[in-house]
Amino acid sequence: MNAQELVSSSSRTARTAATDANHFILTFENNRFASELFGQFDQNLKLLEERLQIHARARGNSVSISGELLATNQARRALDFLYARLQSGGTVETSDVEGAIRMAVAADDQLTLPTLERKAKLTMAQISTRKKTIVARTPTQDAYMRALERSELVFGVGPAGTGKTYLAVAHAAQLLERGVVDRIVLSRPAVEAGERLGFLPGDMKEKVDPYLRPLYDALYDMMPGDKVERAITAGVIEIAPLAFMRGRTLSNAVVILDEAQNTTTMQMKMFLTRLGENGRMIVTGDPSQVDLPRGVKSGLVEALQILHDIEGVSVTRFKDVDVVRHPMVARIVRAYEAQTAVPDESEHIGR
To answer: pLDDT, tens digit, for every residue of 278-307?
Structure first.
């Protein structure tokens, strides 16, 4: 444990009380790390209080935590994990605190038998490159990142803001740095909000760049800008519309197809059959945001139905609770889902 825990005798009595209350004090050895852990004006502790319905009061490098037994233990595990992150050279932002809380709660939610011991420490999947380390912020992100490590073909489906594309690109950058693959191929179908490439100004690169910008942004987050530019120039990183994939065999590569809900059946089949030796494929999309012409079936929806029991294929389904952008985004997603009553395509998987 990274912090010394002090529990008063009255607290021990409270543990067995009918209210199931708990109180303890955590003391962290490094004053600077403790200050960063608690946040400016103790904002991180306030977030713990709000999310877990506990009381947390800082004094120097110690924090007194009280509340329901389950919630206080979740707070302890979250703080322990974040302190260890600081010790290893990382930083603690508000989003990191949110993620640690989600994972601590999820660890308890997964315990269905009263005899099982509660986890002493949080373990979250990570993606690391020379420039950045990403830690899972939700249980679904954790499952997705682990699926990326073990499976040759991974589908990440769900609403915007859940990190599907960002984590896919981060994983690809990690494999490239490790030398597991020789190149990265990033692609999107050029169908967005009813517009078509032919009506856009400029040459082909200028036409497709706006569609592929989210992929560029994720790359620059994970790798130094000059290395990204050199890799693109050398063809080590290729960013192209889906139509450019036809007739190719992509070996020793990580191939990512983003916005896959906008592929047709034939386009999806064409893309999936590009997989070559020592290749990995990651397909991301949101079945509720299809921009194809009316009556045209989404290739992503069909692929999820056809490939669910194929060896080497993994499907991770994100929900609105996995949105890691501004909290308003999750509320917006839920509001739209309630209004349109869009069926969850992933429910068909395995039937």
So the answer is: 999 999 999 988 888 888 999 999 999 999
The secondary structure of residue 296, as a DSSP letter, is: P
pTM for this predicted structure: 0.71
User: For residue 81, how many other CB atoms are within 10 A of its CB?
Assistant: 22
Query: CB-based burial of residue 68 (10 Å sphere; 0-12 exposed, 13-18 middle, 19+ buried)?
Result: middle
- Phi and psi at 300, nearest 5°, equal -70, -45
* Closest CA relative to residue 148, chosen from 310, 272, 315: 315
3-state secondary structure of 207: helix
Question: Bridge partners of 193?
Answer: none
Which helix (H) or strand (E) segment holds residue 223: the answer is none
Distance CA 240, CA 285 (A): 17
Say which residues have a Cβ less than 8 Å from residue 143's Cβ, sequence separation at least 6.
316
Residues 180 and 341 sit within 8 Å (Cβ to Cβ): no
Nearby residues of 290 by Cβ (< 8 Å), 6 or more positions away: 261, 262, 298, 301
Output phi, psi for 144, to 5 deg.
-65, -45
Alpha carbon separation from 140 to 114, 124, 224, 301 (Å, rounded): 24, 11, 28, 20
